Amino acid sequence: MTSYTWKINGRTFDNTEPLTIRQGQRARLTFTNMTMMWHPMHLHGHTFQVVKPDGSPGPRKDTVVVLPAAG
């Protein structure tokens, strides 16, 4: 099995820059998984609303699975 280095914004966990989001502010995050493995993503202590491919609001979740080789 191939070894993967997981990154967010091209940075490994030990080199991350925190996102500063104020209470009430909306932020849109796009997850792109360029590996061949399914990968769950979550935001510690938060839920979020999924946006469907057609742009309409989807369900609220605390974890979403990002499909392999998908953005």
UniProtKB/TrEMBL annotation:
Gene3D superfamilies: Cupredoxins - blue copper proteins (2.60.40.420). Coiled coil: none annotated. It comes from the Bacteria. Keywords: Plasmid. GO terms for molecular function: copper ion binding; oxidoreductase activity. This is Plastocyanin-like domain-containing protein. Residues 3-68 form the Plastocyanin-like domain. InterPro entries: Cu-oxidase_C, Cupredoxin.
